[in-house]
Known about the structure:
Elements: E1 3-13, E2 19-26, E3 31-37, E4 41-45, H1 52-65, E5 70-75, E6 78-82, H2 86-99, E7 103-104, H3 114-118, E8 127-130, H4 133-141, E9 149-152, E10 171-179, E11 197-206, E12 211-218, E13 226-228, H5 231-234, E14 239-245, H6 248-262, E15 266-269, H7 272-287, E16 303-311, E17 317-325, E18 330-333, H8 334-341, H9 350-357, H10 367-376, H11 379-402, H12 405-416, H13 420-425, H14 428-439, E19 467-470, H15 471-480, H16 485-496, E20 503-506, E21 529-531, E22 536-538, E23 555-556, E24 564-567, E25 570-575, E26 578-583, H17 595-609, H18 627-630, E27 634-635, H19 646-659, H20 664-667, E28 672-676, E29 679-682, H21 683-686, H22 690-694, H23 699-714
Parallel strand pairs: 3-9, 10-15, 12-14, 15-18
Antiparallel strand pairs: 1-2, 1-8, 2-3, 4-6, 4-7, 5-6, 10-11, 11-12, 13-14, 16-17, 19-20, 21-22, 22-23, 24-25, 25-26, 27-28, 28-29
Helix pairs in contact: 9-11, 10-11, 15-16
GO molecular function, one term: nucleotide binding
Protein name: DNA-directed DNA polymerase family B exonuclease domain-containing protein
Keywords: Nucleotidyltransferase, Transferase
Amino acid sequence: MSSVRFFPISWFEDANWRSVQVIGRLENSRSIFLRIGFRPYFTVRYPPDLSAEIIDDSHTFLVSETPVAEVKKLDEGIYRISSLNREDYENSVAFYEKNGLGEILDKDQDIKSKFFAEKRISPGSWQQASDLKTLLFNVTTNNRYTSTDLEFFTYTISTIDLPIPPPNSRIVFFDLEAIPSDDVSFPDAEADEPPDNIFAISRILYDGIQTQSTIFILTDKSLPPRYQTNAARTGRPFDVTIQRYATEKEMLQAFFNDLTEIRPDRLVSFNGRRFDLNYIGEHVRRFGITLPPFTKILNYTPYFYPTLVVQQKPFPLRETIMALKSPSVSQIDLLDFYRRLYPQLGNHKLETIGQIVLGRGKTGLTIRELFAKYRRSSQEDLFEIIDYSILDSLLLRDLWEASQIETHLARMANFWKNDAEYVLTHELEDLFEDLLRYITPNVPSTKYIVGRPPLAERQSGIHRNVYLYSLSDIYLTALEQLGEPLADAIVDYFQGTNDGIIPFKSGYFPVTFESIRSFINAQTTSPPVWVEENSVAIKGAPRTGPDDLGPLPYFPLADFVPLIIVANKSWILVNGSGVVFKKGMSSFVRPRFQLLQRYVDYIVQTLLQNPQFTARDLRFPQFETSLDDYALETKVTAEDFAQPPAQKQKQAIIQQLRELGQGATTSWRRVRYIETTDGPVIEEIYSRDPGRYAAKIDVDFYNKKLQEAIRSVIG
Length: 715
């Protein structure tokens, strides 16, 4: 048996759902392109009392008179029945079943993305594929290319997780500089003949260790091929290779030829999806440029194509842009990343992100000054433009490392079983629908029906377009399909308790996805929480009263996430008796990103380290909290400060607003803040150092709020 380790980056399916294509890297950093396709054959076992002569005669008839194209003997009484296409395959299977000709051993084939979830092939984690002789042969003998195009069939794949780090990615950070033909029409990349000129593209090649900087610039002025940036403008000197071009077409062709030499794993930009790549795509179309094959797929020619972008957050948008089709080269827009992971920042400009995360920003050159310097194009003007553009790309590299973006992208891909760039650019409802479609064959049965049924049913209405699903039901369904002892133990553990249930809501509410860390007993009529004098506790098994601790630990709620999901001025409480919807209350939000995966990882490690354990020996884990995990928010309203003690909170918030230069008298009512042991801290401040303020969260304050909310519902 041969095996090879590989690192899946992403996968996607063809239009007809007939194959799945996997893009990844090998341990030696070579990249691979794998296509898992439909196999047009099935295997039949004939009854032992059936003679060889009868079998041979049957095959002669089948090949000549039925959709069967070929029959091959594999073992005594076992034959492979092949067809020419999927339609013939299905007809052949139906013929065998109808006539009872033998037992079909491998009829069911599923080549959708669910296959990856079942086999634990997840983007962002190392895997080992066994029996891939074709893969090994192509990789070891193909010296010309860094990738290989091959096929293998689903039945040959077996994978295991390996605790080894991935090889360093080859990342290209780039930034585009464009100038308008006048000072009015900039920017305008939607016209068929855009009037603006791309005059510079800075490119940083980074492999996790070394950095190499190049700028492609449109100028006829004399510039040295090697240049060192001005430390006064860029913080410290950086070595830059300067490539000059007489025409914009030549400059764009050189940029893509450079990518062909690099063959990057990722193209990283800031607002590149709507600006940089959009502009480049328009100009590539304008000049009739054919892109070179810079991806890791053999003989694949990347291309730009128009696509409609529709979004609601952070602002409504509907526009057509030019997008780059480059499978195996991940395109990451850091603007999308920071908007998705840190929505509380409000302002997501590169200057703002740089100051918050790195403590430094751009060179300070304004756009108008940039235009003026390029139009003059003295050597010193061009050097300042190069410093400006190169520093922008270097900021992207430094943000990539400081924010651990590679790790975040891997976690996103693992959680959603989807490509990280797809996760960044799609609404969470779409991601969840994909998760439903790819991981489990059927929508979970646990679905809280809309409308307002009788109170006896205890599933009061939410909204006609809002549903709740249990993500743990989906996860358990996927685990059950693995048929492995370890997976069975995990399923047994979760099904034996009522732990780890995560509701999902979709439809009407602006808040698209919230997960609740709790032990909700959704199958019993007893309340899932005990409201006591000083705390609220959540149970993991049915109990008769607060003194009945039951078989599982009785956790104080202060260690976990509340049961409240807030959507603007409405909130939803999920309890063991159903779902309650209430309007008119603004409270707080504690979203969760990867809860159930962390639970499962913990259980897996515990079982591996303690083989003698059964599912009943496990105890539910507790995890350290962070501001990223919980993102607590409390909206300030006039009622919050009605009592005298709260006036100090109001004054503290107003003082913080004044320090930030904001109009405190008019804006304090709209500000959001977290309550810490040092007092209230508004979001503009706590978002600068999430780790510091997460450690200071005033859990008692939020626990009290939760008690009030729960008492208003269940008494």
